[in-house]
Amino acid sequence: MTAKTSANAGGAGAERISDAEYAVMEALWRESPQSAANVCDAVCKERGWSIPTVKTLLSRLVQKGALATEPDGRRFLYSPLIERSDYVGTESKRLVERLFGGRAAPLFAHLAENEALTADDIAEIERLLQELKK
Amino acid sequence: MTAKTSANAGGAGAERISDAEYAVMEALWRESPQSAANVCDAVCKERGWSIPTVKTLLSRLVQKGALATEPDGRRFLYSPLIERSDYVGTESKRLVERLFGGRAAPLFAHLAENEALTADDIAEIERLLQELKK
DNA sequence: GCATTCAGATTACAAACGTAATCGTAGCCC
DNA sequence: GGGCTACGATTACGTTTGTAATCTGAATGC
Fold first, then answer.
1. What is the chain A residue with the closest CA to B88?
2. For the segment B59-75, what is each residue's pLDDT rounded down to a tens digit?
3. Which of A60, A61, B77, B117 could form a disulfide with B33 if both were Cys (CB 3.0 to 4.6 A apart)?
């Protein structure tokens, strides 16, 4: 039974976060805690959303265990329960797994080919490589 | 008719390919053209699918303009219309865009942190870097 | 104290997805 | 030539996602 195993055992953020939800997380990673209205200020314009949409997304994220709520008067303040770096790490890994058989080198090669690498990137990566080799 | 603007103007594969669909594409990128049954042989076991599932996915991919069909007797042979490298490139870029503000270096840093890099990867990337610097 | 307002909660609803079952039909086996 | 097969096509159906509208109840204004 495919059954997501419900997971979340560990404590936070097993369920996958969708694209739209991610935009909300972004806002909260940038600054938290924030109220729904606040989050909307941060994302509604850009994504063309209305406040109810943001609220839905917030609720879903709470359900998924990705956000914590803390009451503040008659409203809630939301803050991330999962760390951005965790999320980003998982997603990166997923992609590398899916598209490159888990090998990072081909990903890198692709980015290189598509000129998705700036000179800065290259310098930075080189620096990181030096670190790794230690 | 909602019609996604039909897109595909350029030539092929504008619509997004889903996870399940991607598995089918994989099989066809590995070898093509192939019949539905053939594709199933390649993926059904692994994904726990039955042949109807594969057929649905094939149809959807044809609709999306990602696959071409060529009649072969009373069945079809399918082959990719979009290239794997295009798809992979697009997806990689999407991820880098979404998660790292378009910069590849942080992606790399993340992979490094999560020990998602094998020694081979590192060597390979280093080699690529040398190329790039030329 | 009663109406207005503003939060969250509940409900909605269409499109995409995952995963099939069923239908219709062209060949094939005898 | 009449079922049986093997295909593609059509239909199905629950879930997730995107995007809200509506409901409900508490705080606030007066």
1. A99
2. 999 999 999 999 998 89
3. B77
